[in-house]
Structures are given as C-alpha cells and as structure tokens.
Automatic annotation (TrEMBL):
Protein name: DUF6894 domain-containing protein
Lineage start: Bacteria, Pseudomonadati, Pseudomonadota, Alphaproteobacteria, Sphingomonadales
DUF6894 domain span: 3-71
Pfam families for this protein: DUF6894
Species the sequence originates in: Allosphingosinicella deserti
Length: 81
C-alpha cells in the first residue's frame, strides 16, 4: 500500500508528518485527513483556539502534493463540528 503524509499548516508554518500512513489510495488519504482535521478542530474548540488559516496537506510517498484542505471548510461541512 502507498504511504501518505499529512502536514498541518498555520500562517505559513508547517508541522510535517514524518511517519505517514499506509493507505490504499488517494481517496482513503483524503478521508483520513478529514478525520484527523476534525479531531484537531474539536481540540481547538475545547482550548478556545480558532482554525482560521489552517490547512492539512496530503503528500504521497514521493513528496508530491495530493490535496490541500482548509480546516475552515472541514468545520463548515461538519456543521461546526
């Protein structure tokens, strides 16, 4: 199975995923990114932080970007989580 990395970005600072996850395809990687972002959004709501301007970027094992998803969009479609 291919390896995917999930990097979080806020105001130009990126927290790199050095470990990655083995997933069957790009679609599975997208769903994993959304699940991880929802967990982050929930934690930030508890701490009183915002997620404006934050992104999760998915890269494949070759370092090629697969997708870049704004946390605001995830929160909006999740009904504010």
């Amino acid at each position: 199975m291919p390896l995917f990395y999930f990097h979080f970005e806020h105001q130009g600072v990126q927290v790199k995923d050095e470990q990655g996850l083995s997933l069957p395809d790009h679609e599975a990687a997208w769903y994993q990114a959304v699940r991880s972002a929802r967990d982050l959004i929930r934690a930030e709501q508890t701490l009183g932080c915002g997620w404006a301007g934050q992104w999760v970027q998915i890269e494949d094992e070759g370092g090629i970007p697969v997708d870049r998803i704004p946390l605001e969009e995830i929160a909006r479609y999740a009904g504010g989580v």
